[in-house]
Amino acid sequence: MTDTNPYTLLCERLGEIATLGSVGALVAWDQETYMPSKGAPGRAKQAAALASLIHQKSTHRGLGELIGECEALGLDESSPEAANVARARRDFDKRTKLPESLVNEIAETQSRAQHAWKSARKNSDFKAFQPWLEKMVALSRKKAECFGVPEGGELYDALIDEYEPDVRAAEIEAVFTPLRDRLTTLVARLLDKGTPPNEAPLRIEAAEAAQHALGMEVIQALGFDTEAGRLDITTHPFCEGLAPGDTRLTTRYDTKFFAGALFGTMHECGHGLYEQGLPKIDSDGEPSATFGTPLAEAVSLGIHESQSRMWENFLGRSREFWTWAKPVADRHFGQPMQAFSVDEVYRAVNRVERSFIRVEADEATYNLHVMLRFELERALISGDLAVADLPGVWNETFERFLGSKVDADRNGCLQDVHWSFGLFGYFPTYTLGNLYAAQFWEAIREKYPDLDERLAAGDFTPVLAWNREYIHRHGRRFGAAELCERATGRPLSPDPLIKHLERKFIPIYDA
Amino acid sequence: MTDTNPYTLLCERLGEIATLGSVGALVAWDQETYMPSKGAPGRAKQAAALASLIHQKSTHRGLGELIGECEALGLDESSPEAANVARARRDFDKRTKLPESLVNEIAETQSRAQHAWKSARKNSDFKAFQPWLEKMVALSRKKAECFGVPEGGELYDALIDEYEPDVRAAEIEAVFTPLRDRLTTLVARLLDKGTPPNEAPLRIEAAEAAQHALGMEVIQALGFDTEAGRLDITTHPFCEGLAPGDTRLTTRYDTKFFAGALFGTMHECGHGLYEQGLPKIDSDGEPSATFGTPLAEAVSLGIHESQSRMWENFLGRSREFWTWAKPVADRHFGQPMQAFSVDEVYRAVNRVERSFIRVEADEATYNLHVMLRFELERALISGDLAVADLPGVWNETFERFLGSKVDADRNGCLQDVHWSFGLFGYFPTYTLGNLYAAQFWEAIREKYPDLDERLAAGDFTPVLAWNREYIHRHGRRFGAAELCERATGRPLSPDPLIKHLERKFIPIYDA
Predict the structure, then answer these.
(1) How far apart are CA B151 and CA A372, in angstroms?
(2) What is the pTM of this model?
(3) Is the CATH number of domain A200-355+449-478 1.10.1370.30?
(4) How much is the pLDDT for B81?
(5) Which listed CATH number (3.30.450.20, 1.10.1370.30, 1.10.443.10, 2.40.160.40) goes with B200-355+433-468+481-509?
(6) Tens of pLDDT along A466-484?
(7) Binary contact (A281, B43; C-beta < 8 A)
(8) Burial zone of B502 (CB within 10 Å; 0-12 exposed, 13-18 middle, 19+ buried)
C-alpha cells in the first residue's frame, strides 16, 4: 500500500530532490579535494547535468500542486508540518519566479565576470572589472524585481532574502549602526592607546601532520562525529553538509602559522556541528523522512554563521578554551609551544590589526569590514552609488571605519569574489552571524553558571547541548528572528556583541 | 541551429547517459575511499537514485527509435560509425530484454546473498550459503533465458556474453583445455623437481610512504598521466575510469610485503592506461563526441584484463623491468633493498606456490584457479552440477588441477564474492586476459626487436605505443576476436602464454 497523504508525498518528493542535491554536493567536494586537474571539463558536465535535473524537479508544476494539496489539509498553523509546507511553498514560488533566460544569463555572466575579476584583482585594475560589475549589478536588480520588493521595503531586500529570509536592510541597519559606532571607537582606543600582545606564540614552526592531529583532536572534543564526517585539505576551507550522516570539513595548513588552520578548522567545525545536528537521520542511521525538507535545513546564512563564529571566536579565542587546549597543543607541537604560557597564547590569538583584507581580519575589526560592504552594496543596488565611483567611496569609507588608507584596489574593493558572482545581500549575514553568536553565548552562559570551569576542563557539552536544543533540531521551522527570541528571550540586539568585545579586548590591550 | 543528424543525436544522448554514469562512478569511488561510515545509508539512496535515472534513460523507447533511425542511414558497414550504431543496438536490446521485476529480484538477492556469503565464509559454513547460491543460480538461468541462448550454444553463453561479448563456452574450452594440461604438468615439474627462489627480498620492512612514492614513480614511468588520474588506498584495490580525463587507481599497503602493493598498483595502472587511451577526450581536453558511445568503451573484460596483466606480469615480473626498477626501489627502501641483487629480486617475484586462494596465486598457478571456476560454474548453469555438490566437486577438481587438498570451504568454494553477486561468466575473462596479454606481448616483441634493451633502460614507450595503436584507440569498434587477429595477425591461441610461462619458470626453478 502506498501512502497517499499529500504531506508524506511532499516529504518523499523533496527527499528525492535532496538526494540528487547531495550527489551534486559530492561532485563539488571532490572537485575541490581530490579531482585530477584534467577531470575539470568532464566535471563541469556532471555538475551541469545534475543542476539541470534538480532544477527541473524542483520547479515542476506537480510539486507546486502537491504543496497546494498540503496547504488545503488544514494543518495546525503552529505545527512543524505547517511550517514545513509554508517554507516549501516559499522556496517553490521563489524558484519559479525567475525566467530561465535570466537564470542562464546570470550563470554565463558569473563565469565570465569571475574570470575578469581574478585578473583585475591581480593587476589591481578596477577599470577592467567595472563593466562586469555593472552588468552584475544590473542583472541582480532584474533578479530582485522578479522576486518582488517586499511591502514598504527596497529592492536590495529581495536579494538579502535569498540568504537571510524575511530580513530587511532597514532592520539590519538598525542593529549595525550602533555596533559600528561603538566598534570604531573601540578599535581606535585599542590601537591608539593600547599595547598589542606579542604574536610570537603563533609563529612557531608546526608540521602539517602535527597540525592535522591537533585539529582532529579539537573537533572531536567539540563534539564533531568523525564517523559521520571528515577533515580534508583545500585551497579555500569550507564545510559541506554533504548528505545524511556525511558532513565534510576542509582546512589548509601553513607550517609557519598554525592559528590559521586551527581557527579555520574550528570555524568549519561549527558549521559542521549544525549540519550534524539537523534532523537528517533517524536513530537507526537511515536518512529521515524530513531529510530534504525545510525542517531538516538551516534557517539562514546568518544562523549558520552564528554557529561557526561561536566555536571559532567565543569559545576558541577564550582564556578557558586555551586553559584546556594549551597542553593539548604542547603535546602536538612540542618544545616551541611549551615555551609559552596559556596567557601568552590567549593574548596572541586576540591581536587586533588595521588590515585591509576582510578574510584576514580579527574579531574586533571584522564587522567593520562587513558593514562597509553592506553600505556600499545597498547603495549599488538602489542606484545611489554608481559602479564607477566604487573605488573612491570604498577607500573613503574604509578610512572612516578603520582609520587607515587603502593602498591599492587589490586590497580594497577588488578583494572579494562575491560581487563578481552576483552575491549581493550575502555580506551582512557574516556580521548577523557574529551578533547571533554573541546573543546565544550570553544565553548559554546564563543557563550554565559553571560554564567557564567546564570549558577550562575541556567539557564543551554545554555549548553543543544548548545549540542542539535551541537551534539545530528545529531546522527551518522558525525564521531567524523568531528562533532568536525563542532561544534567548529577546530580539536580536547589538549589545551582547559589543559587550563581549569590549570586555575581552580592553584588558588584553590595557587600553 | 541544432544538428538533427540522428547519428549526432545518438552520440549526444549516449554521452548524457554516460555523464550520469560517471557521477555514479564517483559516488562508488568515494564510498570505497573517503566516505565516513555513517554516510552509508544516504549513499545507498544516492546510488539507487542514479541507477534508476540511468536505467530509465538507457532503456527509453526514444533511444531505441533513434538507434533505428541510425540503422536506416545506410552507413558504410566497415565504418566506425556503423560499428558504433551496431554496438549501441546490441546494448539497448540486451538492456531491454530483462523485465524490471527480474532486475529488482536480482538486486535484492545480491544484497542479501552477499551478506550471507560473508558470514558463511567467515564460519566456513557452506550450508548457510547454499540456499542463496541456489537462488542466484536459478535467477541467473532466468536472466540467461531472457537474453536468449545463441544458436547452437548453451545457456551459460548468454551469461558470458555480458562480460565477453560473442564468445562461447565451447570456444573458451578449446583454448583452456590445452592450457590446463600443459600448466598442470609445468606446475608439477616446478614444485616437485625445482628449487624455489628465496623470497627474502619481498619480506623487507617498507614504510607506507616509501611504497606510495615508489608506486607513483613506477606508474608515471609506465605512462600513466597523473594529471588525469590518482592513486588512493582502499581495502580492495580497483581501477575506475571515472570520467573523461579522470581515471582513479587504488591500492593497499602492507609494510611487511611491498610486492602486494607494487604489483597491485601496476595491475590497476594497466587498466588505467587503457581507460586513459580510450577516445574519451579531445585534444583540447573536453569530453569527446564519442564519450559515452561504444567507440570510447573497452571491448570486454578479457581485453581489459589483458592490459592489467601485461603491465603487472609480462613487464612487472620480467628481469628487464627489475634491471630498471631495482635502483629505483633502492632509493625508496634504502639499505634493506640494496642488500639484494637484481637477479634475487627477479627470482623472488616469480615464486610459485600451491596456494588455495585465487587472488593470492602466482602467475603460473593463477589460470588453474580460474579454469576450475569456469568448469564448475558452467556445470552449475547447465544443471549438470547441483549446488549441494559444489564443495565436494570443488575440492576434487582442485586436487586434480593443483595437486593439493583444500582444508576448508573458506579456502575453497566460499572464497570468492562473485557467485553471491550472480556473476556467472565473469571468471573465464581473467584467463582470457592472460592469454590475450601473452599474444599481444609476442606481437610487441616482434615489432620492437630492441624491446629488452629499452625496457631494461626504463623506456616503456614501446609497450604503451603498441597498445594505444592496436587496442586503446579502437574502443569497441571491433570484437575481442577480431581485435586480436587485427593486432597480432592470428586468432587467440594458448601457445604464447604456455611458452612464456615455460621459458620463464623452468630456468628460475632449474626444473
Answers:
(1) 79
(2) 0.94
(3) yes
(4) 98
(5) 1.10.1370.30
(6) 999 999 999 999 999 999 9
(7) no
(8) middle
